[in-house]
Amino acid sequence: MEQPIGVIDSGVGGLTVVHELMRQLPKEPLIYLGDTERCPYGPRTKEEVKQFTWEMVRFLLKKNIKMLVIACNTATAFTIEELQEKLDIPVIGVIKPGARAAIKSTENNYIGVIGTEGTVQSGAYSYALRQIKSDIEVISLACPAFVPMVEKGILDGPEAKQVVETTLVPILEHDQMDTLILGCTHYPLLKDTIQAVAGEKITVISSSEETARETSTTLDIHQIANGDDPMPPHEFYATGDLNIFIEITQKIFKDSNFGVLTIKHADLRHV
Protein backbone atom coordinates (compact mmCIF):
# COMPACT_ATOMS: atom_id res chain seq x y z
CA MET A 1 0.00 0.00 0.00
CA GLU A 2 1.16 3.51 -0.82
CA GLN A 3 1.85 5.83 2.10
CA PRO A 4 -1.35 7.62 3.12
CA ILE A 5 -2.09 11.28 3.79
CA GLY A 6 -3.03 11.85 7.43
CA VAL A 7 -5.90 14.20 8.30
CA ILE A 8 -6.82 15.31 11.84
CA ASP A 9 -9.69 17.25 13.38
CA SER A 10 -11.36 17.80 16.73
CA GLY A 11 -14.40 15.84 15.53
CA VAL A 12 -16.45 15.20 12.39
CA GLY A 13 -15.85 18.60 10.76
CA GLY A 14 -12.65 17.55 9.02
CA LEU A 15 -14.65 15.04 7.01
CA THR A 16 -15.70 17.99 4.83
CA VAL A 17 -12.02 18.42 3.95
CA VAL A 18 -11.57 14.66 3.45
CA HIS A 19 -14.51 14.60 1.03
CA GLU A 20 -12.86 17.28 -1.10
CA LEU A 21 -9.45 15.56 -0.88
CA MET A 22 -11.00 12.35 -2.17
CA ARG A 23 -12.71 14.23 -5.00
CA GLN A 24 -9.59 16.08 -6.14
CA LEU A 25 -7.04 13.35 -5.31
CA PRO A 26 -8.87 10.08 -6.01
CA LYS A 27 -5.69 7.98 -6.07
CA GLU A 28 -4.48 9.04 -2.62
CA PRO A 29 -5.18 6.78 0.40
CA LEU A 30 -6.30 8.79 3.44
CA ILE A 31 -6.28 8.16 7.18
CA TYR A 32 -8.61 10.42 9.14
CA LEU A 33 -8.66 10.87 12.90
CA GLY A 34 -11.43 12.82 14.62
CA ASP A 35 -11.08 13.47 18.36
CA THR A 36 -14.84 13.27 18.90
CA GLU A 37 -14.46 12.30 22.56
CA ARG A 38 -12.83 15.64 23.47
CA CYS A 39 -14.60 17.86 20.96
CA PRO A 40 -15.02 20.86 20.84
CA TYR A 41 -11.52 22.32 20.92
CA GLY A 42 -12.72 25.92 20.63
CA PRO A 43 -13.22 26.64 24.37
CA ARG A 44 -10.04 24.82 25.41
CA THR A 45 -6.74 26.42 26.35
CA LYS A 46 -3.92 26.65 23.84
CA GLU A 47 -1.94 24.14 25.92
CA GLU A 48 -4.78 21.60 25.82
CA VAL A 49 -5.24 21.98 22.08
CA LYS A 50 -1.51 21.51 21.50
CA GLN A 51 -1.43 18.41 23.72
CA PHE A 52 -4.44 16.81 22.01
CA THR A 53 -3.13 17.67 18.55
CA TRP A 54 0.25 16.08 19.26
CA GLU A 55 -1.50 12.94 20.53
CA MET A 56 -3.38 12.69 17.24
CA VAL A 57 -0.22 13.32 15.26
CA ARG A 58 1.69 10.58 17.09
CA PHE A 59 -1.19 8.17 16.40
CA LEU A 60 -1.00 8.92 12.68
CA LEU A 61 2.80 8.83 12.50
CA LYS A 62 2.56 5.19 13.58
CA LYS A 63 0.45 4.67 10.43
CA ASN A 64 3.40 5.83 8.30
CA ILE A 65 1.71 8.92 6.85
CA LYS A 66 3.62 10.90 4.20
CA MET A 67 1.88 14.24 4.82
CA LEU A 68 -0.35 15.84 7.46
CA VAL A 69 -3.42 17.99 6.86
CA ILE A 70 -4.68 19.79 9.98
CA ALA A 71 -8.39 19.95 9.11
CA CYS A 72 -9.19 21.91 12.25
CA ASN A 73 -9.00 25.69 12.39
CA THR A 74 -8.34 25.86 16.14
CA ALA A 75 -5.53 23.30 15.93
CA THR A 76 -4.13 25.08 12.87
CA ALA A 77 -4.12 28.41 14.70
CA PHE A 78 -2.33 27.01 17.76
CA THR A 79 0.00 24.31 16.41
CA ILE A 80 0.85 24.54 12.72
CA GLU A 81 4.15 26.40 13.05
CA GLU A 82 5.40 24.00 15.71
CA LEU A 83 4.34 20.95 13.70
CA GLN A 84 5.93 22.25 10.51
CA GLU A 85 9.16 22.88 12.40
CA LYS A 86 9.34 19.53 14.21
CA LEU A 87 7.94 17.00 11.75
CA ASP A 88 9.89 15.53 8.84
CA ILE A 89 6.80 15.41 6.61
CA PRO A 90 4.89 18.27 4.92
CA VAL A 91 2.19 19.86 7.10
CA ILE A 92 -0.59 22.17 5.93
CA GLY A 93 -3.58 23.70 7.70
CA VAL A 94 -6.91 25.17 6.65
CA ILE A 95 -6.55 28.86 7.57
CA LYS A 96 -4.29 30.13 4.77
CA PRO A 97 -6.30 28.28 2.08
CA GLY A 98 -9.53 29.72 3.49
CA ALA A 99 -8.06 33.22 3.51
CA ARG A 100 -6.92 32.87 -0.11
CA ALA A 101 -10.37 31.72 -1.22
CA ALA A 102 -12.01 34.68 0.52
CA ILE A 103 -9.63 37.22 -1.03
CA LYS A 104 -10.46 35.81 -4.47
CA SER A 105 -14.17 36.17 -3.71
CA THR A 106 -14.58 39.59 -2.11
CA GLU A 107 -15.40 42.58 -4.29
CA ASN A 108 -15.28 45.27 -1.59
CA ASN A 109 -12.65 43.95 0.89
CA TYR A 110 -15.18 43.43 3.72
CA ILE A 111 -14.81 39.86 4.94
CA GLY A 112 -16.54 38.16 7.86
CA VAL A 113 -15.10 35.20 9.75
CA ILE A 114 -17.08 32.83 11.96
CA GLY A 115 -15.29 30.19 13.99
CA THR A 116 -14.69 28.74 17.43
CA GLU A 117 -13.71 30.90 20.37
CA GLY A 118 -10.11 29.71 20.07
CA THR A 119 -9.81 30.47 16.37
CA VAL A 120 -11.43 33.90 16.62
CA GLN A 121 -9.42 34.94 19.68
CA SER A 122 -6.17 33.83 18.03
CA GLY A 123 -6.63 36.40 15.27
CA ALA A 124 -5.22 33.85 12.82
CA TYR A 125 -7.66 34.68 10.02
CA SER A 126 -7.21 38.44 10.33
CA TYR A 127 -3.45 37.93 10.14
CA ALA A 128 -3.65 35.53 7.17
CA LEU A 129 -6.03 37.80 5.25
CA ARG A 130 -3.93 40.91 5.81
CA GLN A 131 -0.75 39.07 4.84
CA ILE A 132 -2.35 38.65 1.42
CA LYS A 133 -4.04 42.06 1.22
CA SER A 134 -3.30 44.73 3.80
CA ASP A 135 -6.44 46.85 3.37
CA ILE A 136 -8.94 44.07 4.16
CA GLU A 137 -11.66 44.86 6.71
CA VAL A 138 -12.24 41.78 8.89
CA ILE A 139 -15.27 41.19 11.13
CA SER A 140 -15.08 38.10 13.35
CA LEU A 141 -17.65 36.24 15.43
CA ALA A 142 -17.29 33.18 17.66
CA CYS A 143 -20.14 30.68 17.24
CA PRO A 144 -19.77 28.25 20.17
CA ALA A 145 -23.17 26.62 19.61
CA PHE A 146 -22.40 25.29 16.13
CA VAL A 147 -19.86 22.51 16.78
CA PRO A 148 -21.83 20.73 19.56
CA MET A 149 -24.92 20.83 17.33
CA VAL A 150 -23.06 19.31 14.37
CA GLU A 151 -21.47 16.63 16.57
CA LYS A 152 -25.01 15.58 17.56
CA GLY A 153 -25.88 15.16 13.89
CA ILE A 154 -28.20 18.19 13.74
CA LEU A 155 -27.24 19.55 10.33
CA ASP A 156 -30.51 21.06 9.09
CA GLY A 157 -34.16 21.55 10.01
CA PRO A 158 -35.90 24.03 12.33
CA GLU A 159 -33.51 23.62 15.28
CA ALA A 160 -30.41 24.22 13.15
CA LYS A 161 -32.02 27.24 11.47
CA GLN A 162 -33.03 28.81 14.78
CA VAL A 163 -29.54 28.41 16.27
CA VAL A 164 -27.88 29.79 13.13
CA GLU A 165 -30.25 32.76 12.90
CA THR A 166 -29.78 33.70 16.55
CA THR A 167 -26.00 33.26 16.46
CA LEU A 168 -25.31 35.24 13.29
CA VAL A 169 -27.29 38.37 14.23
CA PRO A 170 -24.20 40.40 15.34
CA ILE A 171 -22.12 39.74 12.22
CA LEU A 172 -24.97 40.20 9.75
CA GLU A 173 -25.48 43.73 11.08
CA HIS A 174 -22.38 44.66 9.05
CA ASP A 175 -24.14 45.52 5.78
CA GLN A 176 -20.93 45.98 3.78
CA MET A 177 -19.74 42.40 4.34
CA ASP A 178 -19.87 40.51 1.03
CA THR A 179 -17.89 37.38 1.96
CA LEU A 180 -18.19 35.10 4.98
CA ILE A 181 -15.50 32.55 5.84
CA LEU A 182 -16.62 29.36 7.56
CA GLY A 183 -13.62 29.37 9.90
CA CYS A 184 -14.31 25.92 11.33
CA THR A 185 -14.45 22.71 9.31
CA HIS A 186 -17.66 21.71 11.10
CA TYR A 187 -19.50 24.70 9.65
CA PRO A 188 -19.72 23.51 6.00
CA LEU A 189 -22.10 20.85 7.33
CA LEU A 190 -24.41 23.79 8.11
CA LYS A 191 -23.55 25.68 4.91
CA ASP A 192 -27.01 25.56 3.31
CA THR A 193 -28.61 26.91 6.48
CA ILE A 194 -25.91 29.55 6.95
CA GLN A 195 -26.26 30.67 3.32
CA ALA A 196 -30.04 30.89 3.64
CA VAL A 197 -29.74 33.03 6.78
CA ALA A 198 -26.92 35.20 5.40
CA GLY A 199 -28.71 35.88 2.13
CA GLU A 200 -27.68 35.73 -1.51
CA LYS A 201 -25.59 38.92 -1.40
CA ILE A 202 -23.01 37.21 0.82
CA THR A 203 -20.65 34.57 -0.58
CA VAL A 204 -20.06 31.81 1.96
CA ILE A 205 -16.53 30.39 1.79
CA SER A 206 -15.38 26.94 2.91
CA SER A 207 -11.64 26.27 2.95
CA SER A 208 -12.05 22.64 1.81
CA GLU A 209 -11.53 23.11 -1.94
CA GLU A 210 -8.54 25.40 -1.55
CA THR A 211 -7.03 23.08 1.09
CA ALA A 212 -7.31 20.13 -1.30
CA ARG A 213 -5.62 22.17 -4.03
CA GLU A 214 -2.77 23.07 -1.68
CA THR A 215 -2.45 19.40 -0.71
CA SER A 216 -2.13 18.44 -4.37
CA THR A 217 0.50 21.12 -4.97
CA THR A 218 2.45 20.04 -1.87
CA LEU A 219 2.45 16.40 -3.00
CA ASP A 220 3.84 17.44 -6.38
CA ILE A 221 6.51 19.72 -4.89
CA HIS A 222 7.77 16.93 -2.63
CA GLN A 223 7.30 14.30 -5.37
CA ILE A 224 5.23 12.04 -3.11
CA ALA A 225 1.98 11.86 -5.10
CA ASN A 226 0.48 8.42 -5.60
CA GLY A 227 -0.16 7.58 -9.23
CA ASP A 228 -1.18 3.94 -9.09
CA ASP A 229 -4.28 2.86 -7.17
CA PRO A 230 -7.51 4.19 -8.75
CA MET A 231 -9.56 3.05 -5.71
CA PRO A 232 -7.27 3.34 -2.68
CA PRO A 233 -8.29 2.13 0.78
CA HIS A 234 -9.19 4.74 3.39
CA GLU A 235 -9.28 4.48 7.19
CA PHE A 236 -11.38 6.70 9.47
CA TYR A 237 -10.84 6.76 13.24
CA ALA A 238 -12.84 8.45 16.00
CA THR A 239 -12.02 8.65 19.70
CA GLY A 240 -15.65 8.87 20.85
CA ASP A 241 -18.99 7.23 20.04
CA LEU A 242 -18.76 5.45 16.69
CA ASN A 243 -22.50 5.33 16.05
CA ILE A 244 -22.92 9.09 15.63
CA PHE A 245 -19.60 9.30 13.76
CA ILE A 246 -20.76 6.64 11.28
CA GLU A 247 -24.15 8.34 10.89
CA ILE A 248 -22.57 11.69 10.00
CA THR A 249 -19.99 10.02 7.75
CA GLN A 250 -22.81 8.35 5.81
CA LYS A 251 -24.55 11.72 5.36
CA ILE A 252 -21.41 13.39 4.03
CA PHE A 253 -20.40 10.56 1.69
CA LYS A 254 -23.87 9.28 0.72
CA ASP A 255 -23.49 10.06 -3.00
CA SER A 256 -19.81 9.19 -3.21
CA ASN A 257 -17.85 6.18 -4.37
CA PHE A 258 -14.31 6.66 -3.15
CA GLY A 259 -13.15 3.09 -2.67
CA VAL A 260 -12.88 0.90 0.41
CA LEU A 261 -13.51 2.66 3.71
CA THR A 262 -13.06 1.22 7.20
CA ILE A 263 -14.16 3.01 10.38
CA LYS A 264 -12.57 2.18 13.73
CA HIS A 265 -12.27 3.47 17.28
CA ALA A 266 -8.98 5.14 18.29
CA ASP A 267 -7.51 5.19 21.79
CA LEU A 268 -5.10 8.07 22.28
CA ARG A 269 -4.33 7.42 25.93
CA HIS A 270 -1.15 5.47 25.26
CA VAL A 271 0.26 7.09 22.12
TrEMBL record:
Substrate binds at residues 9-10, 41-42, 73-74, 185-186. It comes from the Bacteria. It catalyses: L-glutamate = D-glutamate. Belongs to the aspartate/glutamate racemases family. Provides the (R)-glutamate required for cell wall biosynthesis. It is an enzyme of class 5 (isomerase). Keywords: Cell shape, Cell wall biogenesis/degradation, Isomerase, Peptidoglycan synthesis. Pathway: Cell wall biogenesis; peptidoglycan biosynthesis. GO terms for biological process: cell wall organization; peptidoglycan biosynthetic process; regulation of cell shape. GO terms for molecular function: glutamate racemase activity; identical protein binding. This is Glutamate racemase. InterPro entries: Asp/Glu/hydantoin_racemase (IPR015942), Asp/Glu_race (IPR001920), Asp/Glu_racemase_AS_1 (IPR018187), Asp/Glu_racemase_AS_2 (IPR033134), Glu_race (IPR004391). The lineage of its organism: Bacteria, Bacillati, Bacillota, Bacilli, Bacillales. The active site is at residues 72, 184. NCBIfam families: glut_race, PRK00865.1-3. Its EC number is 5.1.1.3.
